Structure formats: structure tokens, C-alpha cells
């Protein structure tokens, strides 16, 4: 366990998985993260936390499964996996994750974005409403969409390639005239390689049949409904062999991860 630090307004704590008691704190007022972005970039796709354990840390979030096996979506306490075709299935409790971010979602802000908003305009509406407070924000956007462009990846086999190489072969697919939810997090830029600075968002349709990592979108003729939770505390647990602070994540890597390099 390392000492807690104050990074701007964000209260950060960490622990090595399996070493001593878990610092639970108030799980309902903070974000929980398994492993780090730097570890994923280096190809650390095996974790040691099951989804049964993860369910005790939150009901809303994003991540992946061991072997980088698709995109994980946690919504209303359900853990879903979007495979490389965009098909959704339930994640079994015994499955494990190498990377996930969760919280118990309790929105403190509710507002709308105009009809016909694209991805940037939706994020801009959140930025305008929240300002630049350097904490973690969890968000949920409910809307009818003219289109949503998503991606996912098939399960990888060892030896694992770095994430940048893996995403060069990502599978993309577009959903049209669909109602659903975009959810995830807005992270401050901590400069520690912990998580993606800015937005990390996944999509799932209202029938919970299709989804993936959201790359682009355009909402339909009605305003999008946006809810945001403020999380001033982040607890990170790392598996053996993964350091809390990794190499600084470059903006090009962020663009490739979140928007397909655009």
C-alpha cells in the first residue's frame, strides 16, 4: 500500500492486489480502477480480479476481459461484453479483467445536449456544464441516435502484442437508427499513465444486444439526456508485476485509443 496523495483536487490511493487489507473507504463516492493504462499499452492483458469481485466496487463502468477479449460495459449493475462483431453477452462472475474502471453511479448533474449532436458536441456539453475541475466524472448519456460508430477487438493469444499494434487491427461497426446509452468517464490529465486523459466511453443499445467502444455518433431529433457524477477520489489496485505509475501517455496514443487515431 502506498501513501495517499493529493493530485490537484483528486484524492488518489492505491494498493497491490493481495497485499494487506483493502482500503474500501466510501466506495459509493469514488471511482475504482483495476490496473493502469500504461500496463495495457505494454500488453498486460491478464488480470487477477474476477467480475464477482468487481461487482462489489461499482455498478457503472468500462473495461475489458482477460486477453483483451472485447469491450466491457457495466450498466445498472449488469456486466456486459461487446465482442469483435458488436454482439452483447453477459459476463460470467468467474471471468477476470486486466483493466476496468467502476463506480456506484449517483448523478449530481442532469442536463441535455441539442438534437443532432455529434460525439464532440456531446462531450462539449459536458465540458461546458462541469468546467475543468480536476476530478473524475462518471457520465451516462441516453438518446436516440442516427448513428453510432463503435469498435471492439477479438480475444488475443500470447505472446501479447502492445495495445497500439492490437488496435491497428480493431474491428469497427456502425449502428444506425438506434436508441441506447453512452457511458463511461472523463479523467483529468494526471500525467501518470493511470488512465486515458479525457473521455473513455462505451455504447450499448436499449435492448442490450449491440455495443462497443464509442468512436463517433450523432443523436437523433430529440435532445440527449446527460447525467454526471462527481468523483473526487480514485482507488487503483494493481496486479503483481504492474506498477502504479507508468510512462506518460502521449496524446497520439490517446487519440488512437479513444477515437481511432482521428
Task: Walk me through what this model shows.
The protein is mainly beta and 262 residues long. The chain has a single domain, classed as 2-Layer Sandwich (60s Ribosomal Protein L30, Chain: A). It is 13% helix and 42% strand. The chain is built from five helices and 17 strands. It has helices at 37-41, 51-54, 119-130, 163-167, 251-259, and strands spanning 5-7, 10-16, 31-34, 49-50, 60-64, 71-75, 78-82, 88-90, 96-97, 100-103, 109-113, 136-152, 171-187, 198-205, 211-219, 224-231, 233-238. The strands form three sheets. Strands 1-2-17-3-10-5-6-7-8 form a nine-stranded mixed beta sheet, with no helix packed on it. Strands 11, 12, 13, 14, 15 and 16 form a six-stranded antiparallel beta sheet that branches. A hairpin with a 2-residue loop joins strand 1 and strand 2 (10-16). It is globular.
Outline the fold blueprint.
Elements: E1 5-7, E2 10-16, E3 31-34, H1 37-41, E4 49-50, H2 51-54, E5 60-64, E6 71-75, E7 78-82, E8 88-90, E9 96-97, E10 100-103, E11 109-113, H3 119-130, E12 136-152, H4 163-167, E13 171-187, E14 198-205, E15 211-219, E16 224-231, E17 233-238, H5 251-259
Parallel strand pairs: 2-17, 3-17
Antiparallel strand pairs: 1-2, 3-10, 4-9, 5-6, 5-10, 6-7, 7-8, 11-16, 12-13, 12-15, 12-16, 13-14, 14-15
List keywords for this structure.
disordered N terminus, 5 helices, nine-stranded mixed β-sheet, six-stranded antiparallel β-sheet, globular, 60s Ribosomal Protein L30, Chain: A, 17 strands, 13% helix, mainly beta, 262 residues, single chain
Amino acid at each position: 500500500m502506498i501513501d495517499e496523495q493529493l493530485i490537484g483536487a483528486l484524492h488518489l490511493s492505491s494498493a497491490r492486489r493481495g497485499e494487506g487489507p483493502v482500503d474500501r473507504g466510501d466506495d459509493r463516492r469514488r471511482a475504482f480502477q483495476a490496473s493502469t493504462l500504461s500496463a495495457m499499452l505494454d500488453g498486460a492483458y491478464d488480470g487477477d480480479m474476477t467480475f464477482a469481485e468487481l461487482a462489489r466496487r461499482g455498478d457503472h463502468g468500462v473495461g475489458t476481459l482477460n486477453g483483451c477479449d472485447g469491450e466491457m460495459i457495466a450498466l445498472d449493475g449488469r456486466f456486459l461484453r461487446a465482442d469483435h462483431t458488436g454482439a452483447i453477452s453477459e459476463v460470467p462472475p468467474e471471468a477476470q479483467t486486466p483493466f476496468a474502471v467502476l463506480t456506484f453511479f449517483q448523478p449530481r448533474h442532469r442536463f441535455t445536449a441539442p438534437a443532432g449532436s455529434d460525439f464532440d458536441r456531446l462531450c462539449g456539453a459536458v465540458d461546458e456544464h462541469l468546467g475543468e475541475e480536476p476530478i473524475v466524472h462518471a457520465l451516462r448519456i441516453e438518446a436516440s441516435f442516427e448513428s453510432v460508430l463503435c469498435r471492439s477487438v477479438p480475444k488475443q493469444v500470447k505472446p501479447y502484442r502492445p495495445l497500439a499494434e492490437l488496435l491497428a487491427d480493431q474491428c469497427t461497426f456502425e449502428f444506425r437508427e438506434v436508441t441506447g446509452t453512452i457511458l463511461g468517464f472523463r479523467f483529468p490529465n494526471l500525467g501518470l499513465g493511470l488512465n486515458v486523459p479525457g473521455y473513455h466511453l462505451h455504447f450499448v443499445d436499449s435492448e442490450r444486444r449491440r455495443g462497443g467502444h464509442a468512436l463517433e455518433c450523432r443523436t437523433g431529433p430529440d435532445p440527449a439526456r446527460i447525467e454526471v457524477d462527481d468523483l473526487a477520489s480514485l482507488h487503483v489496485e494493481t496486479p503483481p508485476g504492474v506498477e502504479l505509475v507508468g510512462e506518460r501517455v502521449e496524446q497520439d496514443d490517446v487519440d488512437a485509443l479513444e477515437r481511432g487515431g482521428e
